Protein 1
Amino acid sequence: QSALGGDWRPIQSWSAGERVHQDVPLTLDPATPPGDYRLLLVVYDPATGQPHTFGGQAALSLGELMVR
């Protein structure tokens, strides 16, 4: 696993099959209604603005969270 920590490393420097770790803070608006929400990861190509795909999908599901 290649840990990035708080440093930014452009996607172009990633290698196929490399595992990349990046902590990304998640801040919710205090007015967010209670409920279950899905977390999706979308990675965009900075040159084209188009999303990269994950197994043919435009987003990778990271799981769910519950807002109370």
Note: Residues 1-5 have pLDDT under 50 and may be disordered.
Protein 2
Amino acid sequence: CAVLVTASAVLFFPASGFWHWTFSSNEGFVASFGSASMVIPSFLGQTGMFLGFHLALVVLLLVRLLNKEMRSRFGLEPDLWLWTLTGVVAAFTGFRFFGHYFLQVLPGPVLLAAPVAASLAAAVMWRRLVAGLIALASIVAFVFAWIPRTLRALPDPTALVSYVDRHTTSDQSIFIWGNFPEVYWRADRPTGGDFVSTDFIVGLSGNRKASPATLADTTPGAIPILLKSLAQRPPTLILDTSTGGIRQYGNYPMSVVPQLRTWVSAHYRHVATVEGVWIYRLNA
């Protein structure tokens, strides 16, 4: 199945590009451990959140493992436990511990727990316990999702979007030095430079400290791709988020890629500063 799914992608994407971005250019992302001061809290926090939001599932799995009657009724199902272990290994590979990585852990435990949940339907105490755990997790998840700043605060793109709307037309592209894709889709402008985020250019990735040291992890071939696409299709505006310190880009002024800084200086002029972000416009 894995081979068929991977092979089918080649029908929609160029084979060389698909292989590059999916497999051959990710060794730094997978192999780099990073700083223990960031990795360990991330591991504890994300794993704890995953287990906390799935307490009902954990209880049902423990019942299946520890209850002799359940073990004899449903068997060991080694293929499902192997599936679960594979998901855990995949989630932990690279020591990133993003919440969405744990989604691949869920299918096996869900299939293991489902018959236990069905068999406990007649037991009022267990049914109430499981239902209560599900309700509690749902309420907490709702609070995190819909009450701003409960879990984390995100930068507000409104001012930049307003400027882009006023100073470009819908067919004019913009390029953002940094990681602020909200501006692209909120302003509904084409992406200049072929990258939605320049994290590929500076080697910055999740759960890693932003510093010049990450420049060694720049995705192979990313800088030439960026420079070529900008030269072929110069964007009308360039937004430099490093001057505003958005998402750690204060550590990455545009000068970390000297060719890019030289090209921008030759073809653009500084026209505005919005929320600390320097904005450049293409010369006539």
Note: DSSP finds 14 helices and four strands in the chain.
Protein 3
Amino acid sequence: PALLTISDGPTFDFGSRPTGSSATKTFTMTNGGGVAATAMTGSGLAAPYTFFGGSFPGTGGTCGATLNVSSNCTIVVEFNPSATGITSDTIEVSYHN
């Protein structure tokens, strides 16, 4: 099967950011499995996190519908806090083997 891993995982910390500011992070996803991952889609992010530009893989991201064996692509996530406090979220990537 396809085996997708993401850089900086399983957690990444954007650190302290003032409200109204934003920061982006580019994550690298790698397929270390034996078959291509197909029909890839990304979801799971809610404010204050988004795919940069609004949709998967984020503006500047290179992931598409397929990730071949031993290949990688990128996902760009934006953090834009609108209130103080601790927040967390999870990137979800669905695919077929």
Note: Strands lie at 4-6, 23-31, 38-43, 49-51, 72-79, 92-96.
